[in-house]
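To the wet lab folks,

You asked to see what we're planning to order before we commit. Fair enough. Below is the target structure as tokens, and below that is the sequence we designed to fit it. If anything looks off to you, flag it before the synthesis order goes out.
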């Protein structure tokens, strides 16, 4: 890891075709890159190749195949389909000539919106968090969680969910750039937040016992503003395998959904950075 990565507040520094992760990129499951940073890296590459005026990034699927070391990495992208209304793009994250994660994204062209109403199960997010004031320099991201009967927590409030048995909600705001010197796009911002679908849907009274193996984000539109909201809508688990779902929001309302699959992991292996 180069000195520039260590000195930057961003998760990563770009050095040509190579990305250098800094200390802030470490996740809660050990000395590896956090899943939300991995998802952001892949979403950024997919958007750079597949994004275009008039198209919406309507679906992102991220497969977290192997632990990603905090060392240099590269991304390889391929266009699978480039049609008039549909673009499908694949990406692979490479370390030491090995694919450690992969993703695909579907970009759809906007069109005339049809008339009529369609039923949908209503989901309501709690209010946006209050101004938290100055935040610690080493904070990975700002999370304001609600659990149980709607009581609120604070920054990185995932850690407050141990006693909450009811539905869980989280407002997430990124407090550092993904790549040094680059503005993080709305699509990359929501892609990073969607990794927390696992924590939001799988956190129980015993803490977070499932490490996510993948997640899929679907969007009707891109988010507006800094905050991404996640509202848990379901959790199912059996024999150490869990699947969960959340509704995804911005400050103006629901914009999509995310689903995730997880594998049971020892409780002592999870170390959230509060």
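Sequence we intend to order:
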């Amino acid at each position: 890891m180069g000195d520039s990565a260590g000195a930057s507040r961003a998760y990563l520094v770009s050095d040509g075709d190579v990305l250098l992760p800094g200390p802030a990129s470490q996740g809660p499951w050990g000395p590896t890159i956090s899943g939300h940073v991995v998802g952001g890296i892949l979403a950024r590459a997919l958007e750079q190749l597949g994004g275009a005026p008039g198209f919406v990034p309507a679906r992102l699927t991220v497969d977290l195949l192997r632990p990603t070391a905090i060392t240099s990495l590269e991304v390889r992208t391929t266009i699978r389909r480039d049609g008039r209304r549909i673009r499908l793009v694949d990406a692979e994250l490479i370390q030491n000539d090995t694919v450690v994660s992969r993703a695909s994204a579907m970009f759809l062209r906007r069109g005339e919106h049809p008339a009529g109403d369609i039923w949908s199960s209503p989901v309501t997010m709690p209010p946006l968090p209050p101004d938290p004031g100055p935040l610690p320099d080493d904070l990975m991201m700002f999370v304001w969680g609600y659990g149980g009967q709607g009581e609120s927590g604070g920054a990185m409030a995932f850690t407050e969910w141990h006693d909450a048995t009811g539905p869980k909600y989280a407002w997430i705001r990124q407090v550092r750039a993904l790549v040094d010197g680059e503005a993080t796009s709305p699509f990359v911002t929501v892609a990073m937040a969607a990794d927390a679908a696992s924590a939001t849907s799988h956190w129980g009274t015993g803490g977070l016992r499932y490490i996510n193996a993948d997640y899929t984000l679907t969007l009707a539109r891109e988010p507006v503003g800094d905050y991404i909201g996640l509202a848990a809508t379901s959790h199912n688990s059996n024999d150490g395998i869990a699947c969960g779902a959340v509704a995804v929001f911005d400050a103006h309302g629901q914009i999509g959904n995310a689903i995730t699959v997880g594998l049971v992991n020892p409780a002592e292996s999870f170390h959230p950075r509060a």
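Structural context that might help your review: Residues 3-110+126-269 form a domain with the Porin fold (CATH 2.40.160.210). The first strand starts at residue 12 and ends at 15.

Thanks,
Computational group
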